[in-house]
Design goal:
The complex is a heterodimer of chains A (150) and B (414). Chain A is α/β, with parallel strands linked by helices. Chain A is 44% helix and 13% strand. The longest helix of chain A has 16 residues. Chain A is globular and about 45 Å long. The chains are: A alpha/beta (150), B alpha/beta (414).
Chain lengths: 150, 414
């Protein structure tokens, strides 16, 4: 089983696909769940406190807006954990969207800087292209080492 | 929403402030003014095309969400009493959208709007005055419609640098007091006593009192004021009243001791406004320091500036420290005090122009108020920069106190 970072980082479809192929999706939903179920904090809606943008300084300098650093505080550790990544470019917003394109640019850059297998592909614009899109993702996930192989 | 007491619904149109650690501060400020943030409902599928529809194509999904929410507010899909538009400080894409969304709402609706760029250090206290002004416009329109002062009322403006008080009777200022702010309550007592003395009336005779400025809550409680109101609303009202421009559009610029306000006013009601305050370099405090360094009284600085040429001195008052450095360097190079004074005035208005007037549509008449408006070089520099006539009404330095006394007279009849 490989830990697969997905982009868009909150894509339910990608997370589900990764899981179906026996791998662990690294999605922001898990991070948010952890945040909101942490009873020691009360900073709704996602329990991000002023400390989180400071944690985000690990990934971006202080000149970078707090919205980027706050998001990176959630997403950065996922990238650090990643053993593989799937990046889907130009998806419609309901496929997944973190909201801030500066964060998108930064997280994709950090992923690409890692020495891990990465599949980069564009979201299919037509139905005819959809099977190929799915096939490529399936082939990539198949190619990743499973638990026993590791 | 029922007037005066009901909860004010404010649409929060933001780029994702919940990821910046400031959301609890936003909520705390809203709760303080009995307001509640709501999130206009939108169709997620529409987000992919909203940029094209709006005419502003941006890459960030949350900025497209801002446009969609603004559209929902304008079209009445979600009913709100006010809109708070906010994006991250230092994000260019966010700043462009914030500005255009604000303009869009202002153009297509009468809903009051404020915009703000936040950092992770933004506190509820910083937002309080802004949200108080926003909710006042929604909640107290009847009070803001008042154009004539009636009865015997008083207003006290507890500012960061000076405390001002006026006593008014039947639409006339009959007494005023202006003292430096040291201890908030003591300064207010002193200014109020001076105004009462000049008016020849006793405290018991005052039918209603209004307070404003930084110390408004403290002095309001102390004097049992009928009206405790932030300075955006009060100064807008006071400015158009003193300048006799109560109907139609106007722009009010208030250069205070610590921060500045630029307010777009329509029929005496504030619309868009910005509050500066990143650095004291663009405030009355800077003029105080310049006067001190030049060895002149602040009341003489204006006349000095009018005689000088700002072009001869380079001054950057973005930061008060660098501003003073420029001053010291200029004097060391042989600059004459007149030119330095002129440069200081120009530097302050330039900063207001660059940082605040970009977010407020300047409509004539432009009314300049606040203590710094008495420094003649300031209205001159502002007029030169904007190429329009700047109106400095009589008693412009008493603006907050006059506005408070005027609005407080609404409580005489009640």
């Amino acid at each position: 089983m490989a830990k697969v970072f997905i982009y868009p980082v909150n894509s339910l479809i990608l997370a589900d696909l990764v899981e179906r192929f026996g791998h662990k999706p690294l999605a922001v939903m898990n991070q948010v769940r952890e945040k909101v179920t942490n009873i020691s904090l009360d900073s709704p809606p996602v329990n991000i406190t002023p400390e989180d943008p400071k944690v985000g300084l690990r990934y971006a300098a202080v000149e970078v807006p707090p919205g980027v650093r706050g998001r990176m505080a959630l997403i950065g550790p996922l990238i650090e954990d990643a053993e593989a990544a799937i990046i889907v470019e130009a998806p419609p917003v309901n496929f997944g969207c973190v909201g801030c394109n500066r964060t998108n640019e930064l997280m994709k850059y950090i992923v690409r800087s890692k020495d891990i297998p990465i599949l980069e592909l564009r979201y299919p614009e037509t139905e005819e292209n959809a099977p190929e899109f799915m096939y490529k993702i399936a082939a990539f996930l198949e190619s990743l080492p499973r638990e026993e192989e590791k | 929403m029922s007037e005066e007491t009901g909860i004010v619904k404010i649409a929060l149109v933001s780029c994702g402030s919940e990821y910046s650690g400031v959301q609890p501060e936003f909520e705390a400020a809203a709760a303080e003014v009995n307001a509640k943030f709501v999130y206009p409902e939108i169709d997620v599928a529409g987000l992919d095309n909203i940029g094209r529809e709006f005419g502003l194509e941006v890459a960030s999904g949350d900025l497209r969400l801002m446009m969609a929410r603004a559209k929902a507010v304008v079209e009445g899909t979600t009913h709100v009493d006010g809109v708070f538009i906010t994006t991250c400080f230092r994000c260019a894409e966010g700043a462009i959208v914030r500005n255009e969304v604000r303009r869009y709402i202002h153009k297509h609706s009468n809903i009051p709007v404020i915009s703000y760029s936040f950092t992770e250090r933004t506190t509820a206290g910083t937002l309080l005055t802004r949200l108080e002004a926003l909710t006042t416009v929604a909640r107290r329109r009847h009070l803001l419609a008042r154009e004539v002062q009636t009865g015997l009322t008083a207003g006290i403006d507890s500012g960061s640098t000076t405390t001002k008080a006026v006593v008014m009777r039947d639409n006339e200022i009959i007494g005023s007091g202006w003292v430096p702010t040291t201890k908030v309550l003591e300064s207010a007592e002193e200014a109020y006593s001076l105004a009462l003395k000049e008016a020849g009336v006793s405290r018991d005779e005052i039918q209603a009192l209004g307070t404003t400025g930084y110390g408004r809550f403290l002095i309001g409680d102390h004097f049992n004021a009928q009206l405790i109101q932030e300075e955006i609303t009060v100064n807008s009202k006071g400015a158009v009243y003193l300048a006799d421009c109560q109907t139609g559009p106007a722009t009010v610029i208030d250069i205070g001791g610590m921060d500045n306000k630029a307010i777009s006013v329509d029929d005496g009601i504030p619309g868009m406004f910005t509050m500066g305050g990143i650095c004291a370099g663009a405030s009355g405090r800077f003029f105080e320091m310049i006067s001190k360094r030049l060895g002149v009284d602040i009341t003489e600085l204006g006349a000095l500036a009018v005689k000088g040429m700002q072009e001869k001195v380079t001054m950057n008052s973005y930061c008060i420290v660098f501003g003073i450095q420029s001053l010291v360097n200029s004097l060391a190079k042989g600059a004459v005090p007149e030119d330095v004074a002129a440069a200081a005035c120009y530097s302050v208005v330039e900063q207001i122009f660059e940082q605040q007037l970009q977010e407020v549509d300047v409509k004539e008449p432009l009314i300049l108020v606040g203590g710094s408006s008495l420094i003649e070089g300031v209205p001159k520099a502002l007029g030169d920069l904007l190429k329009i006539d700047v109106l400095v009404p009589k008693s412009s330095h008493l603006i907050g106190a006059v506005g408070a006394a005027l609005l407080a007279s609404g409580y005489v009849e009640e």
